[in-house]
Amino acid sequence: MDTPEKAIIAEFIRRIDGALKGQPTNPAELLHERIVAQIVGTTPVSGLFPTRDALWGVAGQTVMERIKPETWSVRVLTMLGTGSRVAASLAIEGETQSAKRYNSRGWPTACIFGVRYKKINEIWLCPDTLEIETVIFGRRCIANS
To answer: β-strands 101-102, 119-126: how paired?
Structure first.
């Protein structure tokens, strides 16, 4: 990575991927205790999370209860930015407990990270909310006519 901030973000994503596969990687240690994380949308995991514990305890636990972690993959496709703010394009895919495929089209997920004092202090994740609703939570959506 060409900046220390990008290296921290890449390591964080690598650790998330490893943790999903059962490796003892501890991605949370790269997050500032007072992180501000936003998952955009109106899904059950969307919202503003003002601490690391809130992010992992609410969004993380809610998703983990519905997926087969060993089938999931998270990786960085590209990163853009210098200094404390970096935008990333992420590849996120896997299966739910009911064997539904999340992100079968392979569309990237946008995310903006803030890094300060060698810790991630901001995350703005912009996932495909329709996929979260229909695949992870099993809701049905009716197209507008």
So the answer is: unpaired
- Mind listing the pLDDT tens digit for each residue in 69-86? 899 999 999 999 988 999
Q: What is the residue type of 141? A: C
Contacts of 103 (CB under 8 A, 6+ apart): 92, 93, 94, 109, 128, 131
Give residue for tokens 């539904």.
100
- pTM > 0.85: yes or no: yes
Options 3.40.50.720, 2.170.270.10, 1.10.132.60, 3.10.450.50; which CATH number does 4-136 get? 3.10.450.50
Query: What would the two tokens of residue 83 be?
Result: 């200094």
